């Protein structure tokens, strides 16, 4: 891949360091990006002594514009995802939320890793992953007799041998390793956040994979982070069976207590009736029941029972949630 990029540069009459002026400027940019934050880069470039360097960039903005011109193995793709929640609007439609998923083609990323030269101390590329990538499984032994098997790299495991046996001759196993670091969240405009996902290969030696300077892991996607307000996350529907207080010997309670039978979380939506279908929740072969302080109640709701041939409410397992009106308003209108 890098040979093809260089061939395009030669055809256009560009130096290997393009879009930067020379190798010295290229080394400076690498140091700035690796060692200095973006705010400090701007401050550095505004120093009077920096003007004598006569770099092709004069601010953080022009530097980032130049970096954007660097050749890339693949392009970012935007995939818009519509998530339908379980919250129903006044119009009777389920609310939804639009999410943005930015990602690279994983096949292109794998090809880039397999063809990526490892930079040496003088920043010149050495042969592509020389002695650092495995293309076939191996069996390592701790003794000369081959009795004590040892497992180190991924390609020394039995799984690799099994997978290799399933492939046609000349094919190579390329185990994909995905990783995400919650502490590396990047914040963009407003409250939009993303969760970066990185891709690397089991073919690459673990000693190389764990060195960030070797670039053995590629940022492959930004997973969107959203509050998903179109979903009920903390609301539960329950049937209050009793309201009571405890004797004073149990201490002073600020609120009465309620004995509640829970329903399962709002999950099943009936498109024909445009409402949720509720099922009683169970726990250890019995009803899922709890005692709670009455102040946790948010509001009353009206449940429509799905009667069976028995016609007994206490034996009904399924209900429909009438989320437009509560029981009090329902009785006034009926």
Characterization of this structure:
- The protein is an alpha+beta fold and 334 residues long.
- The chain has 9 helices and 17 strands.
- The chain has helices spanning 2-11, 23-35, 38-45, 48-51, 60-68, 106-114, 158-166, 206-209, 327-333; strands at 77-88, 94-103, 140-141, 149-150, 176-180, 186-187, 193-201, 218-225, 238-244, 257-262, 268-270, 275-279, 282-283, 286-287, 289-293, 302-305, 318-322.
- The strands form 5 sheets. Strands 1, 2, 5, 6, 7 and 8 form a 6-stranded antiparallel beta sheet that branches.
- The longest helix is centred in the first third of the chain and has 13 residues, at 23-35.
- The chain starts with a helix and ends with a helix.
Low-confidence stretches: 118-128, 184-191
Q: So how many helices?
A: 9
How would you sum up the global shape?
elongated
pLDDT averaged residue by residue: 79
End-to-end Cα distance, whole Å, is 74 Å
Overall helicity:
10-25%
| Radius of gyration over all CA atoms, rounded | 31 Å
Derived from helix and strand composition plus strand pairing, the structural class reads: alpha+beta
The profile of the biggest β sheet is: 6 strands, antiparallel
DSSP strand count: 17
The share of residues in extended strands comes to 25-35%
Chain oligomer state: single chain
H/E element order: HHHHHEEHEEHEEEHEEEEEEEEEEH
Give a short summary of the structure.
With 334 residues, this protein is an alpha+beta fold.
Write the layout of secondary structure elements.
Elements: H1 2-11, H2 23-35, H3 38-45, H4 48-51, H5 60-68, E1 77-88, E2 94-103, H6 106-114, E3 140-141, E4 149-150, H7 158-166, E5 176-180, E6 186-187, E7 193-201, H8 206-209, E8 218-225, E9 238-244, E10 257-262, E11 268-270, E12 275-279, E13 282-283, E14 286-287, E15 289-293, E16 302-305, E17 318-322, H9 327-333
Antiparallel strand pairs: 1-2, 2-8, 3-4, 5-7, 6-7, 7-8, 9-10, 10-15, 11-12, 12-17, 13-14, 16-17
